[in-house]
Every structure is written in structure tokens, then in C-alpha cells.
Amino acid sequence: MKEKGMTTITLKKINREKVYQYIYQQKETSKLQIVQDLQMGLSTVSQNLNELENDGLISRNGYFESTGGRKAQIIKIVEDFRISIGLGILKDMFHIVAVNLYGDAVATETIELPYENSDAYYTALAANVELFIQKNHYAPEKIEGISIATQGIISPDGTAVTYGDIMGNANMQLSDFSSRLPYPCHLEHDSKAAADLELWNHPQLDSALVFLLNPNLGGAIITGHEVHQGNHMRSGLIEHICIDPNGPKCYCGNHGCLETYCSANALKAASGMPVKEFFNLLHQTHALNLTQIWRDYLDHLAFAIRNLNLVIDSPVIISGYLAPYFQEADMQYLLSKINESSLFQMDESQLLVGNHGQYTPAIGAALYYIKEFLTPAVS
Ligand SMILES: [Zn+2]
């Protein structure tokens, strides 16, 4: 950037942005630390801090322990200066979350509302979203946007679902939401949204393979610090990889897709009980038949991981609804099965577990507006 051509206003904006980003990264800092680390003049820093505080972006509360001289005031960003709302739409319910500027879910709720492509459904959904915002006392101007994660493939321009056989939502339009909610709206494929959250939580990862173990299986590929979309937004659809042409029928019409073995629904069908009940019983009784069902599940998951790792040589993240049920012993078993008769051995550190359970896609979707807010307007 040419210093000469830069106007005073641009320079001021850049400095303000630098100071804000620095405080954001540090989480807690002091004026002196900003002056030292950004190598800015004390008066420039003071002026920016005053402006940021007046605009409600930062707070100055409390003091650091004294290191001899005067105690330094603690400077932080205001975490809920903006809130992003994330929705995770499923067949029988939707999840709703409020996410702050650090990507933390500060409010979560599950609302029973069976999906149907009707005016009544979208109107009821919008009313619930408004109620959630009111209940949590978020002023409308705080809401940066509403980002919706749904099962199904989204058109490259983000305005519609182009494939949605599970929920019958192939006609879902972004405008179904944006016409009923007075906020910016964004539509995302739920497994890509989940991968966005995993990437946010593991920023050190260049590449990863994400398994979204939700009622229906999903997947995503992270490469070059980004979720890979593909030419037709179809990258990472691991759920329809066929592992047995004579296997059970999948909702897509084919047989033996990974969906029929590794989705939470497949586990529910195999055990004949809800997932929560299955794990309660399994962990309490260690009954042989339940252990066998769980091992069968893990065996198929290991088979998929081992094969997919030959395509993408990267860590693997177990994410979504089933992830919180994975215990240390399960991870060890899974790892041993991945490595059994494998050409290459996977290291323990390469197998990660997400920790947001059923809310993963909604939180991941909400990050869209958080990232948008945090991306400097001038750079
Ligand atoms: Zn299928």
C-alpha cells in the first residue's frame, strides 16, 4: 500500500481497525501493551480507545495486578456488540443459537416444528426466531444476521436448495426466510456449516476430513483452511459413498451408502431405541448385544475413515450429534480399527472430536455473520 496516496481518513480507519483487532486477538490487554505491540503513539492509541469505547465496541473494566507502577486498566472487546443467530433445520425440529463475536454460543434452544414447504411453516419459524431474540433481550440493531443451516445442497449463489431428498426441501428459497425476518439472511448446507465451526475451533488445521454424525450423516472436506465447496457445491458428500451395493436402501434410492451404516438414524434403527437411551444403557450395563451394535457402528466408521484418508491425507474430526457420546475407550477402539490392516498408521492426535453436539451446524452457520463483522472494512 502506498503511504503517500493514503488519505488521513483511511489511515485513521486502519489504525482503529488495528487497535480493535489487536484487542480482539489478545482478549485482555492494556493501553501500554497496545502502544508497544502495535508501535503506535500513545495519543493515537488513546484516541482510538476513546472512540471504540464511545461506539460501544470495547470496555474498560477492572485492573491488572500491579507490577510495581500504576495498575493498568483491563481493555476487552464487548463480546455481544453484535450477535449472530444460527438456525439448524431438521425434519422434525430446528435448533436456534445466538453466537457472540468470539463464536461462543451464548443461548441455545431446540424448537419442535416439523418441516414442510408451506407458508405456515416459514411464518411459524420466523415467529419463533423473533421470540428467541426477544427472550434473550437482544436489541434488533445488535443482530448482525440470521444464518440458516439445512440438509440439502445449496445453489452456488446461495439463494436456494437444489437437492433436498431427506426433508423434501428442494424448493426451499433463501427468500422464504428473508421475506419474513427483518435481518440479513444466509443459507448454508448443514455439513459445511459444521465444518466451519470445526475449523473455527481448530484454526491450526490446514486440511481435515469432517464426519457430521447427525440423524443423517454428513461430511465436509477442509483444505487450505477452507471448507471445500466443489464445482457444484457437492464436495464432501461422504454419506452417499457406497460401501456395500447389496446393503440397506438409502433415502437417495441406492443401496449400502455410508448413510445407512454411520448416521445416527442407522444406530437408532440397529438398536431399536433413541440414541440417548442407547448410550445410557450401553454405558450403564455394558450389555453384550449393545456393545456389539456400537462396535459394528464404529467398524463401519473406521472403514470409511481409513479409505477417505487415502484421498485426503489429513486429521479427521468426528462432529455433530453423536460426537459428545464418544468416550476415550471408543476413540481408542476406533483408532485401532482404522489402523488395523491399514497401509499407514494414524496417530492419536489426528483423530479429533467436536464438542457442540446437535448444535454444531447452527453455531457453524452463525459464524458466517461473525466472520463478516470481523473482516476489516479497510485493509
Ligand atoms: Zn445414499
Summed up, what is this model?
With 379 residues, this protein is of the alpha/beta class. The protein has helices at 8-26, 31-38, 42-54, 119-135, 174-178, 190-201, 259-262, 264-271, 275-285, 288-308, 328-339, 360-374, and strands at residues 58-63, 73-77, 83-89, 93-99, 105-112, 143-150, 153-154, 161-163, 185-189, 208-213, 217-223, 226-227, 316-319, 351-353.
Q: What does this protein look like?
A:
The chain has 379 residues and is α/β, with parallel strands linked by helices. It folds into 3 domains: 8-77, Arc Repressor Mutant, subunit A, CATH 1.10.10.10; 83-194 and 360-374, Nucleotidyltransferase, domain 5 (2-Layer Sandwich); 203-357, ATPase, nucleotide binding domain (Nucleotidyltransferase, domain 5), CATH 3.30.420. The chain contains 12 helices and 14 strands. It has helices spanning 8-26, 31-38, 42-54, 119-135, 174-178, 190-201, 259-262, 264-271, 275-285, 288-308, 328-339, 360-374, and strands at 58-63, 73-77, 83-89, 93-99, 105-112, 143-150, 153-154, 161-163, 185-189, 208-213, 217-223, 226-227, 316-319, 351-353. It is 38% helix and 19% strand. The strands form 4 sheets. Strands 5-4-3-6-9 form a 5-stranded mixed beta sheet, with helices on both faces. A hairpin with a 3-residue loop joins β3 and β4 (93-99). Bound molecules: zinc ion. Zinc ion (ZN) binds next to loops. Belongs to the ROK (NagC/XylR) family.
